[in-house]
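Support reply, case 0932

Customer input (verbatim):
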Amino acid sequence: MRDWLERVWYGGSGWCRVLLPLSALYCTAAVARRLAWRSGLRRAFRAPVPVIVVGNLTVGGTGKTPLVIWLARFLRRSGFRPGVVSRGYGGRAKRWPQQVRADADPVMVGDEALVIARHSGCPMAVGPDRVAAVEALLAHSDCDIVISDDGLQHYRLGRTVEIATVDGRRRLGNGHCLPAGPLREPASRLGRVDFVVVKGGQGAGADEYPMHYEGDTLVNLRDENRTWPLAELRGRRVHAVAGLGDPEGFFDRLREAGLEVEPHPFPDHHAYIGADLAFDDDLPVVMTEKDAVKCTRYARNHMWYLPVEARLPDHFGINLLNLLEKRHG
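Our regenerated output:
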């Protein structure tokens, strides 16, 4: 199904025309829903602190998690006490919201939430109801600004600043809403956010900010004190494992580093079992950190993950602080 949708959304499949009537209905509903919140017919929750929402228009990975971590670190350096909320997608907790710490169980709170908590060093609360997550975060911490991981379409949560992330390689696909295309809202919505951040930086427009990933050292799943520079694997064959919205982006990164990649894509937020990582050889197994937090129980000495950090231009941070000052004083 995933491969078929990729062909429809990004490859020019003729099925797109068949699905267009359904897309028109979806698009109309999405626009009507947003107008209901903007017009005041439905009342949004306004937190007593500024709220930055990081989201996207497309289904699939666009770099939200690394950007949220970058924002948390940047805001702390700028004198804020940031906190983070997220849906906790994939988490199986029976009660929500959940406070997330660096030693939390990803099965309970979700893989992305655990990665953010580990690298941001910020208090974090997750739950399907973003408003309840914000209230819980403020009740259990002294944060003075909230970053919402995803939630661009979660209009019940009022926001001070909106940031949309775009995949520089795939952009907006064929430009259609679901199911004929990958868009959750019409493409025009991108022109109404405050900042557009382009993952990979390819084709970033004049009013967009390129975001690049840095990270060239693997970390061992069994012993995080063991590291392995990617440069030392140049020309070697590896099993590459990725349960992401866009696993090809991770595979391409390894190929660009000179590795010979045998790809093993899995659905986004995949719940791994040991058999998923059992290959018939002793080649290195390389995965993302998001996958690694769920695979430590199956860790063997030849399994590694690649941590990455986002890098953005200086003027992005400056413009963000100026907008926060203007809107929240």
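We compared this against your earlier run and they match. Two observations from our side: The chain has nine helices and 15 strands. The chain has two domains: 7-212+311-328, 216-307. Please reopen the case if you see a mismatch on your end.
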